[in-house]
Design a protein that fits this description.
alpha+beta; 5 helices; globular; seven-stranded mixed β-sheet
Length: 161
C-alpha cells in the first residue's frame, strides 16, 4: 500500500560534496533539461520506467525552468526526478537506472528537486505515492502522512500489460 510522505524543506542535507565527487570521478552532471530535450527525456522515462511517469515528466516541461532534474553522463541519462508536475508541492516521479543505483545519484536528484521546491516558497513538500518509505526517511527525514492511502493517484489509469 502506497502512502504519501511529508518533508520539511528547511532541514535538507548538503549534497555539494557528493555531487562534486560524482562529477570528478564519474563525469556525472546534474541539471535541469531544456525544451529541445523534452522528447528525448520523456521517451527515456517511458522506456526505462512507465508511460505514466513519462506523462508526468512531460507535464514538468510546461514550467520554465523545467520542474525536473536529470543525471547525465556524456550523452546518457542515468536518472531523473520531477517535482510539481502532477500536483502543487509534490515531489516525483523519480528513477535511476538499475546499474547506476547505490552511488548517490537518486539522493542528489531528490535533494536538488526539494531545494527547488523550497526556492519556490514552500516550507514542506509531499512525496506522493511512495514506494521506498525507509529511503526517504533516511535521506530527508520524511514522515508518512496518516490516512494518505487514498491520494491523487488512487484511481490512476494505467497502461494494460
Amino acid at each position: 500500500m502506497m502512502q504519501d510522505m511529508l518533508v520539511r524543506l528547511l532541514d535538507l542535507p548538503n549534497i555539494s560534496k557528493e555531487e562534486n565527487t560524482l562529477l570528478e570521478k564519474e563525469g556525472i552532471i546534474f541539471r535541469r533539461p531544456i525544451a529541445p530535450e523534452k522528447s528525448l527525456v520523456v521517451h527515456w522515462i517511458d522506456m526505462h520506467f512507465s508511460k505514466n511517469w513519462a506523462d508526468e515528466a512531460e507535464a514538468a516541461f510546461s514550467a520554465l525552468p523545467v520542474n525536473c532534474f536529470i543525471a547525465q553522463k556524456g550523452q546518457k541519462i542515468l536518472g531523473f526526478a520531477c517535482f510539481e508536475s502532477t500536483a502543487k508541492n509534490f515531489f516525483g516521479p523519480t528513477g535511476v537506472l538499475q546499474n547506476e543505483r547505490g552511488k548517490g545519484v537518486g539522493k542528489i536528484l531528490l535533494v536538488k528537486s526539494l531545494l527547488s521546491l523550497r526556492d519556490m516558497g514552500y516550507a514542506y513538500a509531499i512525496i506522493g505515492g511512495v514506494g521506498p518509505a525507509a529511503y526517504y526517511q533516511q535521506i530527508v527525514d520524511a514522515k508518512i502522512i496518516e490516512k494518505s492511502e487514498k491520494s491523487i493517484y488512487q484511481n490512476l489509469l494505467k497502461q494494460p500489460k
